[in-house]
Amino acid sequence: MPILSKQKKLINNALWLGLTLIVFACLLKLSFWQYARGVDKEHRIDRIAQLNQQSPLTLDEIVEMSQTKQFSGDENINDFPVTIDGQFNSDYVFLLDNQVEQGSLGYRVLQVVTTPSYAVLINLGWVQGSIHRSELPKISSIQGQHKFQGHVRIIEKGITLKAQDFSKVSWPLRVQEIDLDKFSTLIAKPLLPFVIYANKNETIGFKKNWHPIVMPPEKHFGYSFQWAALAIAWLILMISLKRKNQTQAKKTVLITNDKTQKTTTNNKNKAIKYG
Q: Is the dihedral of CA 173, 178, 182, 184 positive or negative?
């Protein structure tokens, strides 16, 4: 076999092996990631159940726990039940956009509550939006002193395609994401680095449709199985294609050799005949 042909074969084999392993590793990594997410969700569900059996903490106790970090492992103040006793600021109402409830688009209504020590953002529930984007829902903001219970929710930063423009502000303010630092600047008062979600049994606010676990662990485990199955299917497919190509290459070589041999034999016969 010529040297160039051998080199070409080695390069093709290396490319095949690299592509096979890279795709297989990526699919397997996605499977492990989904499985880990499912396990985390299971742990969080168990933790929420345990926390709900405890008496709600005050906002001061929550802040103290957050500052002193009285936790183990990756735990934090997320999902802790809390009792709020504070004054609602009716001047500042935030409407979190693109919130879906049973196929209908709407908003989550958020207001600021001030206590003697802190200011915190409260998620008061969901309201129906208008089919016209220029129209905001007409809501009555909550006023005065209220005592109610809720749960702490640490807001995770998502992927932002475009920064929110707060150069022109009118209230209620429609927002695309919860940005507590920018909200603090808008109201000229520092907000605590988390949001309180009012409990479903509270009469204040609007439709309480939030769930601490949006996707249950079972779905993550299902996706994990699917990614693992795709990884195995990909491996089987690539090995099958490789064997098929090798078989076809061998057949081609055999046919070529057979033709060459027949040609050589014919040439010899002609040479003998006319020699």
A: positive
121 and 199 in a single domain? The answer is yes
Interval 64-114: pLDDT, tens:
888 876 655 556 888 899 999 999 998 899 999 888 888 888 899 999 999
Is residue 127 within 8 Å of 139, Cβ to Cβ?
Answer: yes
Does this model's pTM top 0.70? My answer is: yes
Cβ–Cβ < 8 Å for 220, 38: yes
Q: Are 198 and 108 in contact (CB under 8 A)?
A: no
> The domain containing residue 189 runs over which residues?
80-211
Task: Based on the fold, state whether residues 93 and 207 are members of the same structural domain.
Answer: yes
Residue 186 parent element (H or E): helix 180-187
Q: Please give the C-alpha separations between residue 234 and each of 33, 51, 111, 128, in angstroms, as whole numbers.
A: 18, 44, 51, 45
The rounded distance, in Å, linking the Cα atoms of 136 and 95 is 9
Asked, for residue 51, whether it belongs to a domain, the answer is no
Single residue among 211, 233, 248 that ends a domain in this structure: 211
Q: 3-class SS at 181?
A: helix
pLDDT of residue 161: 56
